Amino acid sequence: MADRYANFANSGLGRTMVKRLGLPDPPRLRRHHAGDPLVTGPVLLGAAAGGRLSGPVGKLLAEAGVKVTDQTPDGVRVSALVLDATGIVDSSGLRGLYDFFHPYARSLEASGRVIVLGTPPETIVSPQEATAQRSLEGLTRSIGKEFGHGVTAQLVYVAPGGEQAVESTLRFLLSGRSAYVSGQVIRVAAGDAPVPADWGRPLDGKLALVTGAARGIGAAIARVLARDGAEVIALDVPAAGDALADVANATRGRALQLDLTGPESAKRLAGYLAAGPRGGVDIVVHNAGITRDKTIARMSADRWDSVIGVNLSAPERVNEILLERGLIPSGGRIVGVASIAGIAGNRGQTNYATSKAGVIGLVQSYAPLLAERGITINAVAPGFIETAMTAKIPVGLREAGRRLNSLSQGGLPIDVAETIAWFASPGSATINGNVVRVCGQSLLGA
């Protein structure tokens, strides 16, 4: 659905009125298109004394064709500000954050990127250093709310030993693929990650299963994974058969009509995958979801059970049987679709928020177990995304949903899909147990 206010605000008359009246100012976001460079200008890379990441990161960026600089001549705009803050070991060192960002805050171009690199506090022995590293979260979340003009800000905690595994994350965050992701904290664990032969098609040779793929976010996920080289099995309920076939045809994939809430559905799915030429599946995206909204006092038991069944119990059963039968190999990826409602809650959605908080719990509980098998599990948590579902929301609530974030607009299904494709990449091998909100840095929730 078109955001008429955003279109008006970006017109000549609209810009004048927005500025004069102090109205929300949704910027035009830089999203990825085929053939786009990673960034549109130079990247300013700085480091606190003793930082361990600026060297490897500078080398990775240069090899990716990015012009890296440590200063900006007057009047020159940069595409990104990247700061290696791993050398900050106590609160006095936090002055380095001010010294880096204060002079360069106005040098970013529209839809620029801010990335701060730190060390996961939970891996640090020194209380002073752990405290200083935890402080970085407040900085990046505040910058995401301050800079405006479509600028996004992220904190990437890189564990010692993960220096060479950060390229996939940097490519995602610097590019237009992360347009609607801001204010996030991402953890990259120690270890090595394969480098795709072609970063434009990192999923070549992979088989991906996408549930709820007939329309909206699910259809966008299928298209983006196919664009990145994966063969896609698009799964949805039989009632969505025609739309599902359209998605399968558009992605040159396969359509599978199956209601995953059925008592034998997980076994049927496992049998289907086992009988395929690969004998399994590399990427599983649990996107299927429903809402049945009522306040809990007015909610029927059927509404509660159906939402929990589709959104949480079905992914649990599918994971269990695919893992039990060894149908997800080492290097496999599982990605869940949670929601900002699972983080912040939402009036009239106790069932939905419970199920989506459960998806987050599923990621956190499975991550250490799957790491032992070389498999990762992560989740996205979308905020207000422009879909047929959100188009049915009353206009007042819809406008509030669009504006209550740092980017003052709703996201698009492709924003969720791009984030999932990043999780699915072979280059994201040490990204495990993360929940990344695709919400334009919503003002609600943590």
Task: Give the secondary structure arrangement, pairings included.
Blueprint: H1 4-9, H2 12-21, E1 43-47, H3 54-63, E2 68-69, E3 78-84, H4 95-104, E4 108-118, H5 127-146, E5 152-158, H6 167-174, E6 184-188, E7 207-211, H7 216-227, E8 231-236, H8 241-251, E9 254-257, H9 265-275, E10 283-286, H10 301-324, E11 333-337, H11 341-344, H12 350-371, E12 376-382, H13 388-391, H14 395-403, H15 413-424, E13 435-438
Parallel strand pairs: 1-2, 1-3, 3-4, 4-5, 5-6, 7-8, 7-10, 8-9, 10-11, 11-12, 12-13
Helix pairs in contact: 7-8, 7-15, 9-10, 10-12
Strand composition percent: 15-25%
CATH structural class of the largest domain: Alpha Beta
Strand order of the largest sheet: 9-8-7-10-11-12-13
Describe the global form: globular
Identify the quaternary structure here.
single chain
CATH architectural grouping of the largest domain: 3-Layer(aba) Sandwich
String of helices and strands: HHEHEEHEHEHEEHEHEHEHEHHEHHHE
- The whole-number mean of residue pLDDT values reads 95
**What name goes with the CATH superfamily of the largest domain?**
NAD(P)-binding Rossmann-like Domain
The SS-based structural class is alpha/beta
Radius of gyration: 22 Å
The percentage helix is: 25-40%
The overall number of domains is: 2
The major sheet is characterized as: 7 strands, parallel
Q: How many alpha or pi helices?
A: 15
Report the span from N to C terminus: 28 Å
Q: Using DSSP, what is the number of strands?
A: 13
Low-confidence stretches: none
Kindly identify the CATH topology of the largest domain: Rossmann fold
